[in-house]
Amino acid sequence: MYRFSRLVLCLRVFLIGLLWLPFFCITTNAQQQAASPDPFASLRTGSLTVWQSGNASFLDWKAIRVALTKDFPQLRITYRLVDPPDFISALVWERTQGTLPDVVFVDNRLQANPMIAQQSVVEMIGQPRFTSRGWWFLMMQGQHPPAALAFLRWLDDDPNWTAPHIPANSLSANDRSQIEAVADTAVQNLDHHIKTNSAMDTDAASTALTNQGAGCGNIVELFEPVVRFIFGNGNLAILDIAYNENIRGGQVVCSGPLNTFLVLRKRDDGWKVLLLQQGIPFSLSLRQGDNFARLGLSPGRGVAPDAPTLLEPHDGEQETRSPRQDMSWQQTTPRPAEYLVQSQFCMPKDVEKHWSWSAIAFVNPKQYGDVVRMLMPFGQGMQPHRWRIWAVGKDGQIALSEWRTVNFIN
After folding, report:
1. Domain range 173-293, its CATH number among 2.130.10.10, 2.60.200.40, 3.10.450.50, 3.30.70.860
2. What does the pLDDT look like over 196-219, one tens digit per residue?
3. Is the bond into 305 cis (omega within 30 degrees of 0)?
4. pLDDT (tens digit, 9 = 90+) per residue, 7-65?
5. How far is Cα 282 from Cα 191, in angstroms, rounded to an integer?
6. Residue 324 burial class via C-beta count within 10 angstroms: exposed 0-12, middle 13-18, buried 19 and up
7. How many Å apart are CA 306 and CA 93, to the nearest integer?
8. 309-408 in CATH: which number?
9. What is the three-class DSSP state of 350?
């Protein structure tokens, strides 16, 4: 027992130190530069064995394999779909042969819990870029540990990403320093359950913690923050900040990348976080950054847009998700440069207590007149959602509508 405990401790130390190497960062002119040696080197000429247990439709393995082969054409990939009733016994057999897979994907905790109980896996934290409904685990005694580490990182971090195209970045060095400090404070306060988050804007929506996994525990350590992109002007700032994250105190060792997209605005008392999306895929963060970058924020301070007036649906109405229903709002002049639809969901008993992370959808005002009517771009399930509209001016000033709640019935 002592030797096993010591082995587990050594493996934990090894994995915490190596599992998620430093990310990429970019300079103020949005040029990408490597912050460390190639973190995907072991995938370029090595081997990788992947097992999936459960419903094949819960993981888009075809898309993963196509992308993985494109990025690493010399990687030798072995994939096996295992029937759930046979999954644990198959792992036991492979363990006796010294041929355990490197990583496994399961869509049911009945397969995950025995691995967790044996402390033989590390659970991946973060949102993979690919469609999935389940959990990724690294096998501690797999045959190719470096490739397994690199593969789980690759699931979150596209090695070919390019920064948003930013024509001009008018953030001063002082503003940038303040923005990065405020963003770090907001994320750290959220993950350490500090209720009074002085870094948040008074108009910011409540922000939920990312789902860390069923057995990961609540003790979160964030380290090695890297700003991947940052741009804006004296009124508005957009940035993505990535951390390495370890969670202890639970049933299983958990580790992985934590990617956070933030929007900050300048208030009388300094920069404040208006939007914080924690744990979203970096690919989504890049798309949102591109949409903000296309505004081409002007350095001056023009006329602020008026707050949009919400029309339909009325507060508390019942609607169907399928077919999608219309939503509408009205905007007087001056018309903003961009609209954002911000939405959150919760369970019926948790209304106004535990709203989810915020999703945002961009709407081009040039496609509409004074009244915008469009299909609702949100709907996570048969549960309450709330939504509001941002009107974003060319100079980065923002006006917010009221919140409204809609109850989906299918």
Report:
1. 3.10.450.50
2. 688 999 999 987 665 555 567 655
3. no
4. 333 444 334 344 444 333 333 333 344 345 788 999 999 999 999 998 899 999 999 99
5. 19
6. middle
7. 66
8. 2.60.40.10
9. helix
